[in-house]
Amino acid sequence: CSIVEHTFKVGNLSVSPLCKKRVVVAVNDRFPGPTIRVREGDTLIVHVINDSPYNITIHWHGVFQRGTPWYDGPSYVTQCPIKPGASFTYKFALVDQEGTLWWHAHVSWLRATVYGALIIRPRIGQSGYPFPKPDKEIPLMLGEWWNANVVDLEGNFIRTGSANISDAFTINGRPGDLYPCSSGTYKLNVDPGKKYLLRIINAALNNQLFFKIANHNLLVVGVDASYTNPYKTDVVVVAPGQTVDALLVANQPPASYYMAARAYISAPNTTFDSTTATGILVYKTPNTTKASPIMPSLPAFNDTPTAHKYYTDITGLVSRPKYMVPLNVDVKMFITVGLGLSPCAQCARGSGVAGSMNNESFVIPNKTSMLEAQFYGTSGIFTKDFPDRPPLVFDYTNSSLPTVPFWFPNKSTRTRSVAYNSTVEMVFQNTAIVAVENHPIHLHGFDFYVLAQGFGNFNETLDRGKFNLVNPQMRNTIAVPVGGWAVVRFVANNPGVWLLHCHLDVHLPTGLATAFVVENGPTPSSKLPPPPADLPKC
Ligand code: C2O
């Protein structure tokens, strides 16, 4: 195993994806930011120097951070932000996970431009990939672009409850040919007959995406840095936070083919960015025709059946101990996820959106980080009384209830404390209060087993029988079906404070979140380590 070291200089960069020059925050003058490549078992050291005008933190999305909870990165959860002019060094090992993860800013909406791929290949000398060795590996970062300043947009959203829709989607930072004026189109040159491992990441702020390549199938071999049984499909769905590893074989007649990404919109009657980002797959042969690329036909924006089929067909590749589902559950939770309203004095319209879990709308502290409060025993920052079920049982998926009990959730910083090594099961129940839509729920620090998902209200008697306890897919982000539910399990084997939240940035700051506090275990190595000396002060 080796040490991989990077320096991230965060600063202003001028870019013009839609032909207009814009100043954005970026890492090392690149948009998207640098790709980090490591092997399983390596230690990654990243020196972050903040030369930007904003507070910054970097989150290593999907990394277990075993024994290194101080380096997880969400601002005011595991650390205070790195202030302009300050720096902080992240240092952690990538153990027991392989595949595609990514890194992104975890403060305000800065991850719109502060993100990059984190690729973990198998260790040298081990069996390698559990699928045919690709000739080449290609990161494909799907993003969402705004012409406006995203920090201003977030402030405006919190004040008014109305969110601007984005101006473009991007593939590796470029919108592509279909926009009236685009800085360019991402091109992937392929040799006929060769195999390519596409490492697809949805870094968009607020949109799930369908992704397709004209006339080509994809063989999904991993999601969220866990291996899957090979799954052949012509379309993938990626929610913000999720990743897909898929093999592409260049087995079609030499020509040019578009790859395309477009929104999957589960919420009815909503305004959204209906544009399509494209890249081009070009066969490198002398007889490749010069004709314009062939366009794939993407699913309709609201094609929930296609999204659901993709999400539920995939199974995990049970090849290593970590893929074995724990059968004994210590903590059972039923968590409603959805949107309510916030009676809000400073909101222009009198009320803004208040996302909530079990009727608690999570307020992220701003005096010190939650992890420091946990380590030092500081009271008054958060409480450990997040409820294991909603205070009321009602028809969660009925959007026409005249008076909905959860209209105005409580604002609080209530967390769920769990004993070291406990197995936690969560039923996420999507609600239709105010608005119904698919919410991608991300757990920091752990992968979970996705046991089942479906539509309507979760039925304890009937739906428990549908659990896959044999080879469920493992993920760090579950897209809870629109008007439906999903059940996951994880083993809380890492002391720390771990955020659980909707990965739509339009919902996290409104409170669609909570956190797990995993308490210390009995041995020295199962206790919260002290904070690193350079941890930023609030
Ligand atoms: Cu990818 Cu809490 O984030």
UniProtKB/TrEMBL annotation:
It comes from the Eukaryota. SUPFAM superfamilies: Cupredoxins. The keyword Repeat applies. The keyword Manganese does not apply. Its EC number is 1.10.3.2. Residues 11-123, 137-284, 386-521 form the Plastocyanin-like domain. One of its GO terms (biological process) is lignin catabolic process. It is found in: Secreted, Extracellular space, Apoplast. Its cofactor is Cu cation. Its main location: secreted. Binds 4 Cu cations per monomer. PANTHER family: LACCASE-7, MULTI-COPPER OXIDASE. Belongs to the multicopper oxidase family. Lignin degradation and detoxification of lignin-derived products. This is Laccase. It comes from Amborella trichopoda.
